[in-house]
Structure formats: C-alpha cells, structure tokens
Amino acid sequence: MELITLKNNKHGLKGEIAVPGDKSISHRSIMFGSIAIGKTTVTNFLLGDDCLSTISCFRKLGVLIEQDNEKVVIHGKGMAKLQEPNEILDVGNSGTTIRLLTGILAGLHFHSTLIGDSSIGKRPMTRVVTPLREMGAKIDGREEGKYTPLSVRGGKLQSITYRLPVASAQVKSAILFAGLNADGTTRVIEPVATRDHTERMIQRFGGKISRQENEIQLEGGQKLSGTEIHVPGDISSAAFFLVAGCIVPNSSITLRNVGLNPTRTGILEVLQNMGASMDVQQDAADAFEPTGTIKVMTSKLKGTIIEGEIIPKLIDEIPIIALLATQADGVTVIKDAHELKVKETNRIDTVVTELKKLGADIQATDDGMIITGGTKLTGAKVDSHGDHRIGMMLAIASQICEEEIILENADAIAVSYPDFFEHLNKLSI
After folding, report:
1. Whole-model pTM above 0.90?
2. Residue 316 designated active-site
3. Which of 49, 234, 316, 419 is catalytic?
4. How many whole angstroms separate alpha carbon 322 and alpha carbon 369?
5. What structural domains and CATH numbers belong to the chain?
6. 3-state class (DSSP) for residue 186
C-alpha cells in the first residue's frame, strides 16, 4: 500500500505529453496475436499491470511472446494450438483479461482455472458465463459461476443469437471470441453501441465480421493471420490530463497520438458541451484505429446532463468527469451509469465518498451522481480503494485543492498508467 502526499499546483500545467497505449487495444492485440497464425508485432504496448497479466496468461497457454519495453512480438500458432495450462491463470486486477479469455477458453478441448485479485473476486462473471454455457461451454465457479475462481472445460461450441441485457464491450467480445470457434453464425445484439476494438481487430487480422445497426454477425471457423499493430494512446488515460488542463488555472496541455475511436470519444463531447477550450486535430486516417492531437486550456465551464447512449462511450471517464463537474457553474447530472457499480470498485459510491472528503457538493443516485459545481476543494486524506481511475482522479484533484492531500493506495495507478506521476510532474515544471 503506497501512501503519497500531493500539493496544490500554483503555476498551471503546461507542455506536451504522449499518454500510454490504449489498455483495451493492448489486451486485444495479445489475445488476437496468440490465436492467429504467424508473427504479430505490437508497438506502443501499454506496460500496465493489467496488460502484463494478459501476456502472462497466454504464455501459460503455450504462446511464445517476446517483450522489449513497449514492443511485443507474439508467435501465434492458431487457436487450436493453445495448450492446456499446468498452473492457474491469474488475471490480477484485469476484468478485461478474465472475461475475454473465458470466451477463448470456452471452445478449447482442455481444462483451465482462472483467478484474480480480491477486486476480481467481487465482479460478476455470470454475464459472460451464461451466453458461453448456451454455446456449449462447461464453466463453473463460486455461486454456480457467478464469481471467481472460474473453472472452464471447453469443447465443441454452437453459434447463438444473443441479446446483451446490458451494454458491455467485454461480454460482446467474449461471445465473439467464442464465436470464432463455434459452428455457424454468431449474432450479438447490443442495446446501444459499445467500444468496437474487437470488431476492428478481427478485420485487422484478416477475419470477416459485419454489423447492421446494433446486430453484429460473425461466421465461425475463421483463421486469422498475424499482423502489425500500433497501439494508439488511451483516451481514457488522456481524460485525466484533459480535465486537468480545463480546471487548473493558467494551464495549456497538448496530448499527441490519442485514440479517437468514435465509440470512445464521449469525454470529448462532454467537454465541448461544458464549454471547454479545446482543439482536436485528427491524424491521417491510415490506421485501423483513428488517432489525433488534442490541445486543452483553462476553461470556464458550465454544468450539463450526461445520460443515455453516450454513457458506454465514457463509462471509464466518469470519475474524472465528476471532478470536472465540481468546478463548473451550475449542476451536472450523470444518469444511466449502473455499470459503475461493478467496476474495480462501486465507482458511484467511491467517487462520491472521496470527493466529499475534499469538500465537493456531490450526491449519489441509484444510477449516477448529482454534482453542484463552483466549489473550492480542501485537503484531506483520501483513498483510491485499489482503483486506478479513482487514484488518478484524486491526484488531479490535488492540483486545485487549497491544502495538500494524502493519497492512500496510490500504487493502483500502475494498472493502466505507470508513468502517470512522471507526466504530471513534467507538466508542472
């Protein structure tokens, strides 16, 4: 448990940084590279703990993966050549790893056991276990497969048509991974569109997948081929510095190589709606994932309502949006964000609890928060509760607090942004 002291920034945040590689895309690059045939080279890979857990799991499945800092080379032999692990697959803190990997293991003719840390042990797995069982997988776990450890005995799978009860890219992706190994055409129907990195990556590795409105179709039995992947910067990580640039006085921050996938840019829409001084320049569209440069400056902000179909496009950014709202004129209302309750923490309760310690006027609701802005934040002892995004949000809050804050469990930030404090210090000089 790391405890650090953070002080107010009196000079503004200025300069340029490149945020680390996208976590979702880094995970998927390892997974697809491992089930494809041939060599896959990944550059700008995120060296966060979660993504390193994914590498560890696939090495235990017999995949040769070479790593040199942010360059990773995967020597794939195809889905059928993955090997039964002789030890438990530990996903650490990574919900993406356990849910998507379960989809891959569902169609393989061997047994495996997956575990994670205490946070993973509390996160619901039924949402992936149920459709995978419908496809023919034999999966068990605590409370009949609701919680880890999960035991997966894969086998022959049949395609299904599955309507997602909640908008979840992880559940969709688990079914699509299983669908690659199933007989027939797998169909997934989303209530609203979620991040589409899995679909884009299937095409990048030479597969075929189609979408009509909110229905995705995937033919089973496809063979994927190794390729090259350059991981764009993670917009969810960029969000912390976008907000910092808006709320810390005398600030001007430029972020380069930021992923601008339209299923992930809800944070930019919110910033625009709230009146942020921001400029977005998209790079040449020659990559499988769009990227660009974002510049943001200290802004006069106004409250807004965040609800409906935009929520899946910014679900990971809501903690930092809550901080943003404390500095806007008027009231900000966040609705339809039930999914926050089943993240690394119950993020609704945790965000409200920690920001209240700093003097914020914020209330929890059943599906979100109500924040009255224009409040000065004070110092306090706060806690990430082991949640990387809560930790980064509180660190950014320290930049505008009137007194210093003491942040407990700051080490959780390494899950997705190992260089976070280095970048914060660079912009503070």
Report:
1. yes
2. yes
3. 316
4. 8
5. 3-21+232-428 (3.65.10.10), 23-230 (3.65.10.10)
6. strand
